[in-house]
Amino acid sequence: MGLYNLLLPLKLDWTPVYSCNTALRVGQRVKVNFNGKDYIAVVLSFKDNSDAPGFKVLEVSEIPQGLADISETEIKLWKFVSQYYMCTLGEVYMAAYPKYKVSTELKKPKRKIIEGQVKSISSREKYCKPILYQGASRAQYYKERISECLETGYSALVLVPEVESATILKEAIGIEEAIVFDPALTAAKRRNLANELRHGDRSIVVIGTRSSLFLPFKNLGLVIVDEEQDPSYKQTEPAPRYNGRDVACVMASLHNADLVLGSFTPSLESLYNCKIGKYSLVRGDNIPKVNLQLLDIPAEKRKHGMDGDFSKKMTEAINKASGDLIRIIRSYTREEEIEKYTERFSKDKTFQILTAQSSKHLRGESELLVILNGDSFFDRNDFRSDEKALQLFRNLSLHTSKMLIQCTTPSHPVYSAIIECSLFLDTLMSERKNFHLPPFSRIVDIKDRKTGMLVKREVLERDKSLLEQKKALYLRYGALYLIDVDPL
What we know:
Elements: E1 2-7, E2 17-20, E3 29-34, E4 37-47, E5 58-59, H1 72-84, H2 89-96, H3 99-107, E6 131-134, H4 139-151, E7 155-159, H5 163-173, E8 179-181, H6 187-199, E9 205-208, E10 220-226, H7 244-254, E11 258-263, H8 268-275, E12 280-283, E13 291-296, H9 297-302, E14 306-307, E15 310-311, H10 312-320, E16 325-329, H11 335-342, E17 350-354, E18 366-371, H12 385-397, E19 400-407, H13 413-416, H14 422-434, E20 441-448, E21 454-461, H15 466-477, E22 481-485
Parallel strand pairs: 2-5, 6-11, 6-12, 7-9, 7-10, 8-9, 10-11, 13-19, 16-17, 16-18, 18-19
Antiparallel strand pairs: 1-2, 1-4, 3-4, 14-15, 20-21, 20-22
């Protein structure tokens, strides 16, 4: 009878020990009973029989048929997420293999699982440094890299920040056989995809959100993270509270896969990695071809040029627009007020009233795009707000020939950086360094478990002691508070 350390899908700070009369493999999944409930556990390691545990050891209940082993690479990725984001390994296991996913595997095993069949990925030499591709048009570059990957017999993972972006990017890339991994995919198709990826019988391109990181890739040759700056990559609730972009970087490293991060206006974290030589920066088309006009709200008010939240110059611009599609980005102005305002225009004009969030999924171009109050996107309490606002404005500029921004401070440097952002991003980087903010440090937020309100913010040194700093914080706060590493 052997003793084994097992991983259960529970928030446990310790690893339960179970016995089994049958020899088990590391990564094998078994059924166990814990505290009166049945769970599917993963064998993490063998336990030396001579080392008596000092308590009664429960036995493994069953060895289910049809459940493939968890690969060594998957477990390594889970351990990274657990350590870096200060959560239990069981919480990561729950995220990677939620109950519904395991239940579908148990119902209809599609292929026979042979002992020892599931191994870590084949040894593959990485042939280039991670790349940050900065450009408005990235689809062709992605297509070329994916084609190179497929030609070598490896699979590719393309991450997008939100589900709505997956189909759009698939059409732009033009690779018909790419599989969009989203909630619309049936349980059977998800199971079949997992089986194919696990065994590496053919090269597959998967496009999906951060949950795609927990698919069981075996022969992964390329990881692409599109819109790498997007905050939607950050998981906020529940744990693990990870950033999909950063986990994707580790995943690529574990697989010896190539890594490409793509953005029109990259995050300062990624630009910093270029400055220190960790990434290579490749520039594509980086300057938007848009006619930008700023409307000074206080100045217009002095001239009686405002009608509520709408300037007379904005009305003139809409009337002059020859195109039929006008987009209006609102912040605090109610949609009903904007709809009432648009009724004064001729019926041949179509208006899209959008929030900052919904505007992320724009397709096609309009002749005129209006931002009602640009200054509403600046938040003095958020040191990242200027960076986020610039990224939003520049992405919007790609979908219009004329962009009109009503604002109270037209001299704000973000507005002048919309057309050319390099100098402003350098300025932001210098400010972050002076104030010891990310990417020059790491932030950990300690939050109240019930309300989610911030209790304390810890700023950690970005050096070799980072892991030890986190361990100390976890011992101090882990039992009583929520811990959010690298909050956005």
